[in-house]
């Protein structure tokens, strides 16, 4: 599509156009928005992991100045709204107890909403909420995913007496058992992938404005997917017509999955606005989000690998308990099953795979997707197992990987557990990364340093992930209640500029830049003449939103489709004006011309102006120039890559120094390499956070010990090493751009890369595994308790 | 994150502040200096005073002056002024280095020396340094001025022997002199940066021999303490890797497992381990300032 005169913008590392407003603080976030007669809500939350509510005395709070209303869960229950948040992913035989937006008789996690105060100011509302006197009978709590499955564990929901939400498996248990019996080498591991608090820069917020005269509700919300929120508000919580609800996502300060779900909080705020007929705003504090926004990961797993004598991986199996928390949120049952078990074989052709996952209810915050969602857990497990297998077989971990990779000519590749990988060249990625770190030299240096009592470690990880769950038919087969297509409207304005309305909903990804790059190339219109609109159910077509690295491959493809539809209509108008048939009209670089007579030409922006006058259109053609497209992907996309971490461990202090971090990612065609690099950096930083720093902790009563940044460590800039990025490009063969998605790659690869490196460093001590986060104490303790080794 | 309601009074002078404290002595009162310590605790409702007396604008309590025997550091001197003071680095190196380790630039711009000392946060960096450089804590109350030795000042986590009607006005620091060196080394919490353990050392080095060592730690127990075993081991020792290693090995020998703090940041056992490691780091850094490279010598086995 590009010509010598006009360079293609897709592939160009242009600066992000949204950065000026974001970096200078002029972006408007939910909490920045004001409304006439605005009131403020404070939500009183359970201080206990599990308790019976014996009494709620709201008299003092109600009598306080400036308090407009105090409502309890009973008030909501009495209002006859649907009041039941349900998951969007219905696994077979899934147990799904109701989730009320405010508790009535029992609280099931610390932070569950119990009452709400609406006051004139946020501070007054908080004061009044503090004055509500709730009498609880505290009850024993179920904490820990496998402990919750014990016979004598406290029961989270009376109707699920074994706390088991689901018991899911994939693969062939019998053949895998046989493979293990005949294997030359086997290795096993018990590991925990710790609970993470997704920590977007902006905690959640909502502003609801209900107009009783029209029956319309407008909700400004920190969301990654406004349309889904609108649907769920209509059908699961409020029970008002979806057509009467408008959900707007203003600037949203990050999400990482955590802002996908329909939470009780925005339903409570909306319900309050409906009761009071006034706008109501609520801004979560950091601690409130630590308590009551979804957590993630939280697996306990027993994993095993079996190798033949020559190092061929003949089988892997896993038995996982996945913590669901107290309630099932929208994608929760999918994350530890289809997003995890199906990716368990990673980059390897493994003939025998079996994975069983039990999802258990616990008295903790609900657990759902977070950057990577299941794929980091799968990658961590298989990449730890491969390293352990290599150690058991006495092989170099690089060689073991190389030997078992799926080869480029084997794509499309059926991985045996439900996925068909689209394209890949894993060995090329590996070699690119190894060359960048000079692997042989590193191994020599490691040996030298060990002589001096210093412990260098090299961690290598290959990952493959699956983005943009699709086609929608597949999502249905897996239990989804929604299809995972994406939409856009590309519209020429009367004067010839273009506005594209997208069903995705960016919250930091840079869509305003990258989607405009796509439109510019497709239409041959200057980038500056193109605006992107997202995040408003009244403006954009029905969309599914931004998560799962889907905006590029699925949303970007929708933008291509609608752009091409626009071009086809414009071609007809051009043919009419040039007095030829449309098939004789060529389109290049924004100009329609007659094949063989390039001097007879007309620009698409001129055609657009004509389309809106309607003065000179083909007979029967409607005026206007816009098109809507809904793109349903043919398959998932499968980005992949190789990450290498080089660490030095101080055995005295347990401190881990990440000396190098090399990320080689293949995300298919890159729309904007600068944006790709930024996404890799962010993902790697979050993954290193998981590897070294982060970990949510509940005590045995269900009290969250990590309720703020005072005790939950997200890495600061000086705790992240320089990240060296590189890429290979293997285009996606089944979408128009060839893009595969990049949002999650870094977070998927980096936890096992760092852990593999630390464990490699500590091989002389006989350390074979350390559970994340690898805090100095965890590392020191592992060294201290190791019995093997030669030191 | 909104504090509970409180009455707010701003004092323009020390006398005014003392009279406000006296006036409200029947109520729970908190003193606000630079704000970085108190305000987060108010917002988290970890402290819920009835009255806040703001002394932060009493200019007379701000500044670093030379005295006959050393330095006088005003209670309201912000950390950044200490970090940028050549005099403090020369005369009380451990104190300067500890101050440099507090928070980040924004915290160091707003937090004050006196506020830090009076708050007595168990994991802050200045208390150990105050012990190591033997900073005399000068306070004023209704009966006038008195000096409190640092070891007599800190009595527990967020607890001191300062009376409710007294204010810290300044610290008097004895100059370490030509042969004095000092250092502060800490293992920071991975979250906020407070000390898991932070070790301050101040000592004299004459002809390669250590005299008058003063070694203190914060973060290890509820309030800063000296490490007498380390000091005893150092007194008269050569500045050598083996001597420093031997001294560091005695770090915490006086502290029982029950005394060592047990928190989400570290268990008592690991805190004891780090106490040794960071005592060694601090001693190596001090030795380096005296012209000895003890850190890169092979560890004695």
Structure description:
With 791 residues, chain A is α+β, with helices and mostly antiparallel strands. Helices cover 28% and strands 24% of the residues of chain A. In chain A, the strands form 7 sheets. Chain A has a 7-stranded mixed sheet, sandwiched between helices. Chain A has a 5-stranded mixed sheet with strand order 7-15-14-13-8. The longest helix of chain A has 28 residues, at 551-578. With 301 residues, chain B is of the alpha+beta class. In chain B, β11 and β12 (195-206) form a beta hairpin. The longest helix of chain B has 22 residues, at 268-289. Chain B is globular and about 60 Å long. The chains are: A alpha+beta (791), B alpha+beta (301). Chain A binds chain B through residues 122-123, 126-127, 130, 285-287, 453, 652-655, 692-693, 697, 705-706, 708-714, 719, 775-777, 780-781, and chain B through 1-2, 4-5, 44, 187, 189-192, 264-267, 270, 273-274, 277, 299.
Features:
heterodimer, A: 791 residues, alpha+beta, 7-stranded mixed β-sheet, 28% helix, 24% strand, globular, B: 301 residues, 4-stranded antiparallel β-sheet, 12 helices
Shape of chain A: globular
Percent helix of chain A, as a range, is 25-40%
The largest sheet of chain A has its strands arranged as 3-5-1-12-9-10-11
- Arithmetic mean pLDDT of chain A: 96
- The residue ranges of chain A in which pLDDT falls below 50 over 5 or more consecutive positions are none
Largest interface by Cβ-Cβ < 8 Å: A-B, 31 and 19 residues
Number of helices of chain A: 19
Sequence of secondary-structure elements of chain B: EHEHEEEHHHHHHEEHEEEEEEEHHH
Percent strand of chain B = 25-35%
| Tally of alpha and pi helices of chain B | 12
Q: Please estimate the helix content of chain B.
A: 25-40%
Give a quick account of the main beta sheet of chain A: strands, pairing sense, barrel closure.
7 strands, mixed
Supply Rg of chain B: 19 Å
Q: Total strand count of chain B, please?
A: 14
Q: Any idea what the radius of gyration of chain A is?
A: 27 Å
What is the global morphology of chain B?
Answer: globular
Quaternary structure of the protein: heterodimer
